[in-house]
Specification:
- This protein has 167 residues and is mainly β.
- It has one domain: TolB, C-terminal domain (Neuraminidase, 6 Propeller), CATH 2.120.10.30.
- The strands form 3 sheets. Strands 9-10-11-12-13 form a 5-stranded antiparallel β-sheet, with no helix packed on it. A 4-stranded antiparallel β-sheet has the order 1-2-3-4, with no helix packed on it.
- The radius of gyration is 16 Å and the shape is globular.
- The two termini are 29 Å apart.
- This is Follistatin- protein 5.
- It comes from Ataeniobius toweri.
- InterPro entries: WD40/YVTN_repeat-like_dom_sf.
Length: 167
């Protein structure tokens, strides 16, 4: 996974584009860029860079794998090379938190009926240690996000049809 995907997510009347250069917020009805969050932009809760430069990697790029909207307030987007997901506050149009995941998160799903987030991780590029992680994060406010970590429960796949609780 040497390149990030160029993908978008529609939220309300805005469109979020995830690319090598960061996150771009577009307003399609007026054909204008509302905000561009660059790779070097700082995360509110930790002051880390949104897309840190990897060792020996040049130029600095963002790598994304999956994104979802949570309660029309947040976008959760996974960064497989950093083994984390970022929480974007839609109203503030800022990354407010980075949350550590199991290695190599590749897919994120939001179950609206249970207000629950599910993350599929591969463990490594060879997909030899896949896990599912789950959390009830959707109901937290921005201040709670900044003062607490997203709690993820990991499940390790034991075969194609079953899961065992790892923690």
């Amino acid at each position: 996974m040497s390149h990030s995907f160029d993908s978008g997510l529609s939220v309300g009347n805005m469109f979020y584009v995830f690319s090598d250069e960061g996150i771009t917020v577009l307003q399609p009805s007026e054909c204008e860029i509302r905000r561009h969050m660059k790779q070097t932009e700082r995360i509110v809760a930790t002051y880390e860079e949104m897309c840190p430069k990897g060792e020996g990697v040049s130029p600095q790029r963002c790598v994304w794998s999956s994104a979802v909207t949570v309660r029309d307030k947040y976008i959760y987007v996974t960064q497989p090379l950093q083994s984390r997901l970022l929480v974007v506050d839609i109203q503030a149009q800022k990354v407010v938190q980075a949350v550590a995941t199991d290695p190599f998160p590749v897919k994120i799903i939001y179950d609206k009926s249970h207000d629950q987030v599910w993350i599929l991780t591969w463990g490594n590029m060879d997909k030899t240690h896949p896990t599912l992680q789950s959390s009830y994060q959707g109901r937290k406010t921005t201040s709670q996000l900044q003062s607490s970590r997203l709690y993820l429960v990991s499940l390790r796949t034991t075969d194609v049809g079953g899961f065992t609780n790892e923690k």
